[in-house]
Design goal:
This protein is of the alpha+beta class and about 250 residues long. It folds into two domains: about 5-175, Transcription factor LuxR-like, autoinducer-binding domain (Beta-Lactamase); about 180-249, Arc Repressor Mutant, subunit A, CATH 1.10.10. About 55% of the residues lie in helices and about 15% in strands. The strands form two sheets. It has a five-stranded antiparallel beta sheet, with helices on both faces. Strands 6-7 form a two-stranded antiparallel sheet. A hairpin with a 7-residue loop joins strand 1 and strand 2 (about 60). Helix 1 (about 5-20) packs antiparallel against helix 2 (about 25-40), helix 7 packs across helix 9 (about 215-230) and helix 7 crosses helix 10.
């Protein structure tokens, strides 16, 4: 590894740590991760916390194409994603993509990876994080470029990428969970965004336009909010949000 490259990686990592330790918001966390992985010539990432089943909460920060995340949610892929299933079962980092992962349902896995590749997510590295009260977290770095180049990147930089993943998990979970408890229910960052815009009179279609997601996905998040708050309508959810606004913000 060249001296200049090593110095650039160290400088970028230090900047990354400074940002994520300053209790930033979701957009700042996403930008910090994008900046640090760019130093490794990586462009796409996803950070997901899957808490124990009784809570049902998921926290997601990602710069994947919104067309893929919309497709993913609308097809309920979170319950059959072979990457997440494997990350939940083992603590060691693993690479994934066509031909990489054995699966109890190889046909389902093959279809999943084929569809992901159509959105530019051809192969990736997932770093599971086990062993704390947050449940299982998974940090994924995905690539659309040649497999050989991606493998070389992982071979050279796996320990540092694991450090990036660990730091991001440690600080992002606290930054995102603070200010998101509404009437005792913890909302995901996207659920809070959708509820905030709904409280300003925006429809699901308008929220989708603002956030760069589909109307159906915005409605999906608002439905989750209603379920978590135990109410029947979005208006009732907004009323509870307003009554608990000091806690939320």
């Amino acid at each position: 590894m060249g001296v200049n490259l090593l110095w650039n990686l160290q400088r970028t990592f230090h900047q990354f740590v400074e940002i994520i330790t300053s209790r930033p918001g979701e957009s700042q966390l996403r930008a910090a991760m994008e900046d640090v992985i760019a130093a490794f010539d990586l462009r796409s990432f996803a950070y997901l916390i899957v808490t124990p089943p009784r809570s049902g909460e998921r926290i997601l920060i990602s710069n994947y194409p919104t067309s893929w995340t919309d497709f993913y949610l609308e097809n309920r892929y979170q319950v059959l994603d072979p990457v997440i299933l494997r990350a939940s079962e083992q603590p060691e980092p693993f690479m994934w993509g066509p031909g990489f992962m054995a699966s109890e349902s190889p046909a389902v896995a093959a279809q999943f990876f084929d569809e992901a590749a159509q959105f530019g997510l051809c192969h990736g590295l997932t770093i599971p994080i086990h062993g704390d009260q947050s449940g299982v977290a998974a940090v994924t770095f995905a690539a659309d470029h040649y497999l050989a180049a991606f493998e070389r990147c992982i071979e050279l930089h796996l320990p540092l990428l694991q450090l990036v993943a660990t730091f991001f998990h440690r600080y992002a979970r606290h930054a995102l969970r603070s200010n998101r408890v509404i009437c005792g229910a913890t909302l995901s960052p996207r659920e809070l965004e959708c509820l905030t815009w709904a409280a300003q009179g925006k429809s699901a279609w308008e929220i989708g336009q603002i956030l760069g997601i589909s109307r159906r996905t915005a409605a999906f998040h608002l439905d989750n909010v209603r379920a978590k708050l135990g109410v029947g309508t979005v208006k009732q959810a907004i009323a509870r949000f307003g009554a608990d606004r000091e806690t939320a913000f």
